[in-house]
Write a structure and sequence with these properties.
heterotrimer; A alpha+beta (294); B alpha+beta (179); C alpha+beta (794); B: 179 residues; alpha+beta; Ubiquitin-like (UB roll); DNA polymerase, domain 1; 5-stranded mixed sheet; 5 helices; globular; C: alpha+beta; Aldehyde Oxidoreductase, domain 3; Aldehyde Oxidoreductase, domain 4; 7-stranded mixed sheet; 6-stranded mixed sheet; 18 helices; 24% strand
Amino acid sequence: MKPPAFRYSRPGSVAEAVRLLAEHGPAAKVLAGGQSLIPLLSMRLAEPGRLIDINSIAELDYRHADSDGVRVGALARHSAVLADPAVAARQPLLTAALRHVAHPTIRNRGTSLGSIVHADPAGELPAVLSVLAGSVTAVSTTGRRTIPADQLFTGPLETSLRPDELAVEAFFPALPARSGTAFAELSRRHGDYALCGVAVLVELDAELRIRTARAGYLSMAATPQVVDLTEPIAGRPHDADLGAAAELAADTLEPEPDIHASAEYRRQLARVLTGRAVAEAAQRAATSEAVADG
Amino acid sequence: MAEPQDELHEITLYVNGIPHEVTVPARRLLSDCLRHDLRLTGTHVGCEHGVCGACTVLVGGVPMRSCLLLAVSMHGERITTVEGLAGPDGTLSPVQRAFADCHALQCGFCTPGFLTTITAALAENPAPSREQAREIIGGNLCRCTGYQNIVAAVLRAAELGQAELREAEIQQEQQGDPA
Amino acid sequence: MTGKLVGEPVKRVEDPRLLAGHGRYLDDLGHDAVEVAVLRSPHAHAQILDIDVSAALDVPGLLAIYTYEDLTGPLAEPLPLLIPHPALTHGRTQYALARDEVNYAGEAIALVVAENRYLAEDAVQRIVVSYQPLPAVVGVAAARAAEHLVHPDVPGNVAANLVQEVGDAASALAAAPHRLELELAVERSASMPLEGRGVLARWDADAGRLRIWTSTQTSTGVRAAVAVKLGLELGQVEVITPDVGGGFGVKIVHPWPEEVLVPFAARNLGRPVKFTEDRREHFIAAAHERGQLQHVEVGFDDDGRLLGMSVRFWHDNGAYLPYGIIVPIITSTQLLGPYKLPAYRVEFDSLYTNTVIVTPYRGAGRPQGVFAMERTMDAIADCLQLDRTQVRAVNFIQPDEMPYDQGLIFQDGRPLVYDSGDFPASLEKLKKLVDWDSWTSYQAAARADGRRVGLGIACYVEGTGVGPYEGGHVQVETSGKVKVATGLTSQGQGHQTAFAQIVADELGVPLADVEVVTGDTRRFPYAVGTFASRAAVMSGSAIALAARAARAKILKVAADALEADPADLEIVDGRVRVAGVPGAEISLGTVAVLANPLRYAFDEASKAATQFAVGDPDAAPVPEDDEPGIEGRDYYSPLRSTFANGMHAVMVETDPDTAEIRVLRYCVVHDCGTLINPMIVEGQVHGGVAQGIGGALYERMAYDEAGQLQNASFMDFLMPYVSEMPDGIEIDHLETPSPLNPLGIKGAGEAGVIPSAAVFASAISDAEGFQITSMPISPSELFELRRQQGESPS
């Protein structure tokens, strides 16, 4: 399984990279981590005429965490984001999800932003970005724009990025006050793509009762699916039985069967994992310190 | 046909401490470059889609799948393969010796990927628990051993590594305090 | 350094080289070779209308493209049917390159040779083939229904039908106080070694000789087949097995199309040619195994004693049948296990389907047979509300009934006679190991906690060490080093160590002085191959006998030189000495020198053997019944297979919500006779158990109706990582030495995997409270079964 021939460029700056994309656009692909792209090339499922290797663009290798949230540049490797205590403090959902991305060796090279724009329906990070209502910033020769998560994922392995655009940053908003998160997934083997995964965000009111609950699902649809779970559990104490949220998830989601799992089984997993994650997120919300201003 | 031909690129790879200048097409996988251009055939190819881990090498001391890296993208990088784990006089490293002690290899095909992965992990965490030892090898496939002895080898390597460290410390003390 | 090595956990001599990254696997060789890629059929069943290579011709570095039209003589005939059998009435094998039709997705159509694999794949991509798709027959049910045929001249898709019978099963069933019927299924899986297939060939035009390296389990098999196909004499062909990254059965098949085409291309092009398969190719162009549907009828008495059993099964053999019907024959015969069955009838149909060929995979039909019998045992226990071990024990062949003739013909064409084994003792050991007797209370306590736990058990018997023979050659060189060769091959079993242990003991030399070569037809040309857990038995025995022959020669020569009686001599640490007489000794190297009377000395040591230095002028320098040098060559050819046995127990926990299945404990009791190297045997058991866990809970070949393999990669064919393994396998041993070979050895290679489908089905059934009849099983499948049983999701 060897890749087909392609031309190769290694720009030293974002400006140079987007110039190349403007010139070669649809025939070019961006190489960052390559952990998803290179197997596609080896299997000849993708045959780009040119690869634009951005691994020399040092300005893209950053992680930044502040009261707004977490920003990761295009070259931030999964392993670096996962190990970053500032990220974990500002957006623990991202850190929790990263533990489930493939295996450590893949995480050492793969990039979090790359994983997002690869848009695999079984990817953890697109679901996290979606449930947090984050965004991706893209640059081209004609300017810069920010794409909110709910406009980014258009289909399996498809995003609304234009062929001449370079994704340079992902933004994960910080947690509101009195909120908590949890991530749960179930895969056949440790490190595999999930049969079902869920990223949950729960907000409580001043009496520590459910104010809102949202869940982003992976492996349950062609794109990450965000379900608002608030209605059946609104106003309940955070430590009450929140199983109704799990039922709502199971009723709302319409997964497809595949060789690993039937549709009903996936629904069952959604039920079970949602139940666990909502309870966990609510608990964390109750014990969280109110996020400091500024 | 407007299909690209193979453009060649001149790159330098520092492999096991030695600089190598090679000329490769852009599509040359690092695994193939190491094995066929540099004749370092210790790194093995089991699947070419990043799942089995047999091709794992260290890039800047960090484990990566060489079948998921382009040689040209590795220009200037410091790479360690299984051939670089033993000492300059050929003495096997603690990890390698542990594998022999614990019968942690049978056909040996997956072994280089385990050795590099474990070497890097122990450099970071020299005294892993049993659970951590299982985590360390959690991304590598072996079809022969059933893993039990490989887990034992991780723990044994930690022991041998600690022993070597103590020996080195004692030696230092001895040199620092002449009789 | 003295002391017996056989029986000791000696560290492997293979290891330092492999650990240093200096293994020499097939793709590590032939850096100067040009490379091959193969155009393979995308269709499961199709007529080939046209092959247009024109677009591939301008790929740089292209050297040749071969299709069926380029094959002449024997190469144009189908590949050999390796194991004929009278019942195999409709055997079909493929052509090295497809002729006018293809019968599985993956079948080879064109061979491309180019400067490297990248370019060869470019060329393959540009070849345009026109097909007329035909209906694909996929799965046993479709094959049986025979609405469509795989091969137009094979009615009903039946390659073979075989009945074996002992006693009158029909009457026994009719008369039995209790009867049960079971419908069982085992799904297809595969060996899946980490290294795929590969072959490298060099044609020496000056010498008229062909040298082939191939990642195989049988050098001699490949040699003979290639010689025929290429119209060469056997003596013109050498085959060397390099380091092999696992075989597990799939590499016993020969000749693969590539194994004849690569040498053909090498001779044709006058350049060394290499083929290294990639992982996707291994999935669709190597071989699979295990798929069967089974129907069992059993009659038994109130104690669970078997009175009669009739088994009918349908075996999916894939598109072609190069390996014959060995796998279903093994199922038919090994199904009996350690039990007495007075009346038994087994009938199978081996069926063609438009899928990858089916050839032995570790266990080779035994897992399916054990599955049938052991599910039956559990069903009987369930029916009579008896303990599952009790039902088994009541049917055991007793140790004093050995040898026990089951009345059937085994896979070696010989009567199925168990030579040894103590099944009651094995069961006692297993029950103790897993604490069987306290299980009911453990399970009750767990249930009270809301947990679902189950304990399963399965017993098996394995005929190992099948013939026809293996040979060994032992030579002492003038350096004192001992060179050993045997013709079968190695794929990680530690043969170089185990066989060296045998020779070191037999000759009294240090292990480090013994070097073993396997699988090289230049070193040992008479051999069969490595399969059926036979290497230790066959080559171990032959090598021991060869070493004894060498030892006799050593003592004779040394006795002469020391002027002593051979009976007073001993060999310790490579020195022959007169027992109890210090100083009266001679090194093995010197003995070797003396054993070869010379006219010309070529170094210091050899001077001692020249005509003015040594020799009795009144006797011929080389006696009439003797040869120069110290060599022993002998063969071991058994009358019958020798029977190992084992019993496994597994404790599982199933999740009430997610139906995940977790292994809590895995216990093995294993009887394989004398252990040459217990460390190696334990490693084999670990590995077999891991493959068994994989095969029971994770691995299956998922074909769709069109005959497309949907999980042809490691992402979707789920081989277990360490995380899927329990922490520790508990093993206890019995050693009932085989009476059939000099060292008392029985084979151990397949032991770990044989009962796994059965033992997991038994355990999960115990956890869930309903019988599992189809394996493997995934959490999703368990969830669906629960729903069918009327359980609603929480």
